[in-house]
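Database export, one record per block. Field names are fixed; values are copied verbatim from the stored entry.
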Amino acid sequence: MKRYYILGAGGLGRELCHWLADAGLACAGFIDDNPDALAHHHGYPSVIGDTATCPIDLPILCGIGQNVIRQLAVERLKARGAHFASFIHPLAKVLPCTLGEGAVIAPFAYIGADATIGDFLFLQTGGVIGHDVQAGNFLRMDTTAFIGGFGKIGNTVTLHTGAKVMPGKTIGDACTIGAGSVVISNLRSGHTVFGVPAQKL
């Protein structure tokens, strides 16, 4: 049975532990800067160390959702020579596309044909990336978030639960799209938007 370390012992990391079991794989332990991250949870492998001291002898899957923390933790481990793997749940549907390293794709997520996605994609349950989408690194899409076909998405973009980007739209770097929002216009970098249609906050 192939084993992985999971970066982050929060909610997403614990979900990822169960997703591995669905695929006949195993979590060998969690990496977390909080040694007590699992103090109130039982039945999980232990926290084996923080990002500065943990072993890096197995491939690592990123189980951190928040983009800023996720990127920082990944960079710390990569600087130590850690290897990050990708995980696609067996109930996800991924058509022929290009994925960077470190992707985590949840059950019932979907990626359409000929999409090109950068490193460290996090695509939660029911999330949809349409055909021919081009996206940068550290794209986070929460449950049922949607990017329509031919969308162009920058780096470190977050779509919260149920957020939708209509087909062909361009979203700049470091944008955040609030839960349930519908983006019908292009967004410049650094914007946080919310509502239907989405408006800058």
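Remark 1: Residues 25 and 101 are 18 Å apart (CA to CA).
Remark 2: The chain has two domains: 3-85, 87-201.
End of record.
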